[in-house]
Write a structure and sequence with these properties.
disordered N terminus; six-stranded mixed beta barrel; Cathepsin D, subunit A, domain 1
């Protein structure tokens, strides 16, 4: 989701919160408010998740912080009440901790992981159980695994398997090839993504219609867009990838890698989509 805005009561300082993966720090452009805004939960699952995280954290601050609303673009508006400035760091830390888990739960509910049965069949609906496992051939370069994926059902790409990345990342070039809408301007959703090496980078957030690995598929998945560059300059030719396949996709399946056989196996682990 995007950044958060704080409406401040008189004499309170203006801060900003990360409404997505991590705390983004101080932001400009905050407004002031002396009239309370009616606090009503948001019906959209992701907005409702942000609302829940913010209100839970506000409840622990003894009326120092009031949650007002969540915008259509995912910006959370709160008011820091007079005398409530000392509670702001604790509220910020709480929100930063709870929001990612609640957003992930909302995504699981609205974008369940599934194994798509691509084989033709004449069986009537419900006569055959849905597949639970899929395998795909991968390329191994050193200790790196390159995975073929299908974006939006039509665009083939190669992503680096990276369980240390908390979100799947696509390059701007892949986004353009796939015709993905990339929001721009000050209100565009942005967040911070953590890479496997621990580096945190600011990224644009975009949503893909579907991401498929073998027969494993997640629809309506939010991913990050970031310029990756060359993966391995020492190789001839240099190794490049179209992005990283992160834990937001891989974590929805039980994953098995067979380096000798060159396969990645993904399996649903319970009786319902994750």
């Amino acid at each position: 989701m995007g950044q958060a805005i704080v409406n401040v009561a008189p004499h309170a300082r203006c801060i900003g919160l990360g409404a997505g993966l991590v705390l983004l720090g101080l932001l400009g452009g905050c407004s002031t408010s002396t009239t309370p805004t009616p606090a009503t939960p948001e019906p959209d699952p992701r907005r409702a998740a942000l609302w829940a995280a913010a209100t839970e954290c506000a409840e622990g601050q003894q009326a120092s912080v009031r949650v007002d609303r969540v915008d259509d673009d995912g910006q959370v508006h709160i008011t820091v009440l007079p005398g409530g400035q000392p509670a702001v760091p604790a509220f910020t830390a709480c929100f930063n901790q709870r929001a990612p888990a609640k957003l992930a739960a909302a995504d699981r509910a609205t974008s369940p992981a599934r194994i798509v049965d691509a084989s033709p069949t004449t069986d009537p609906p419900g006569a055959r159980s849905a597949p639970r496992i899929t395998s795909v051939t991968i390329q191994t370069i050193g200790n790196r695994f390159l995975v073929p994926v299908l974006l939006n059902e039509t665009h083939q790409a190669t992503l680096l398997l990276d369980t240390g990345a908390n979100i799947t990342v696509v390059s701007p070039q892949l986004a353009r090839r796939a015709g993905l809408a990339v929001p721009t301007g000050p209100g565009a959703p942005r967040s911070t993504a953590r890479m496997a090496n621990g580096q945190e980078v600011e990224v644009a957030l975009i949503r893909v219609k579907s991401l498929t690995v073998g027969s494993a598929r997640i629809d309506n998945l939010q991913v990050a867009m970031y310029e990756l560059g060359v993966l391995d300059h020492r190789a001839t030719p240099p190794v490049t990838v179209d992005g990283f396949l992160g834990a937001d996709f891989l974590g929805r399946f039980t994953m098995t890698i067979d380096p000798q056989g060159g396969t990645l196996t993904l399996q649903l682990t319970d009786g319902s989509p994750k």
